[in-house]
Amino acid sequence: SIANVNCCSVSLCHLLDLPWEDVLVPHILCYLPLQHLVSLQRVSKQFHNLIKVYLSNCRTFHLSPTSPCIPREAFCSMLKDNKVLQNLSLQNCSDWVSDKELLPVIGQNQHLQRVDMSGCACLTRHSLVAVSLSCMHLQHLGLAHCEWVDSLSLRSLADHCGGLQSIDLTACRQLKDDAICYLAKKCSNLRSLSLAVNANITDESVEEVAKNCRGLEQLDLTGCLRVRNQSIRTLAEYCPKLQSLKVNHCHNVTESSLDPLRKRNVVIDVEPPLQRALVLLQDVLGFAPFINLQI
């Protein structure tokens, strides 16, 4: 019967019979974690070719932080044909990735908007310069714990990527005020900035950021020992959209400059003095005391 014929036809339809570039790639494979796609390549030659098509057209290359470290050969193979990447995270290959592997990827992907090179100790300033020259539309950049980042490479970034919205420069210890001030003047659209764990940063950097980046929403100054109240007051004056400020271990920043920001409901990672005192007292006593102020 016609019904039986239809049932047989449906039962004989396999996943790989669906249109690859119109259905499988944009509507199915895009929901699978990258590590699962890599495993699928080993199933058959057809699946290998399908995943190859997907990888050459995928916009995002991002492995889960809990995934195993991706081998060098797999990284190069997976990205060698891709020219449409918009989001590149090197989190799972930070232990080994070098300029040799990264520069070809950057050179052929000029539409990158988000790049995370955090913790990639084997890279050099040449990779950052390549990003600045190739990725004119870059909006988000992660460089945390990349101690190879220097003033010249950051200036190159500022000159070519004026639309940058967020950058993480945590523990980029070569950078000093002159580089940060230059970045602030060139990238006035910055909304999120981390200068944490850099003893070179002073009020000069913070004030320049505040005066040039009026739309700033998040600023991390954790461990910037030379930052003082003066620049925090400037920040409060010039950045009305500020939502989050981190000043833990900034021993020269006191409540006198933080209180106006608290009144604007800015989230600050340092408790007011009274709360800090109560927490310390609780740690000592082992419980939260009831304080009778009438005694």
UniProtKB/TrEMBL annotation:
Q: Which biological processes are named by the entry's GO terms?
A: SCF-dependent proteasomal ubiquitin-dependent protein catabolic process
Record bears the keyword Repeat: yes
CDD domains in the record, alphabetically?
F-box_FBXL15
Does the keyword section mention Zinc-finger?
no
Residue limits of the F-box/LRR-repeat protein 15-like leucin rich repeat domain?
A: 76-261
From the UniProt record, give the pathway where this protein acts.
Protein modification; protein ubiquitination
Pfam families of this UniProt entry?
A: DUF7885, F-box
SMART domains tied to this protein: LRR_CC
Share what the entry says about its subunit structure, partners included: Part of the SCF (SKP1-CUL1-F-box) E3 ubiquitin-protein ligase complex SCF(FBXL15).
What is the role of the protein in this entry? Substrate recognition component of a SCF (SKP1-CUL1-F-box protein) E3 ubiquitin-protein ligase complex which mediates the ubiquitination and subsequent proteasomal degradation of target proteins. Acts as a positive regulator of the BMP signaling pathway. Required for dorsal/ventral pattern formation.
Family per record: Belongs to the FBXL15 family.
| Official protein name in the record | F-box/LRR-repeat protein 15
> In which organism is this protein found?
Astatotilapia calliptera (Eastern happy)
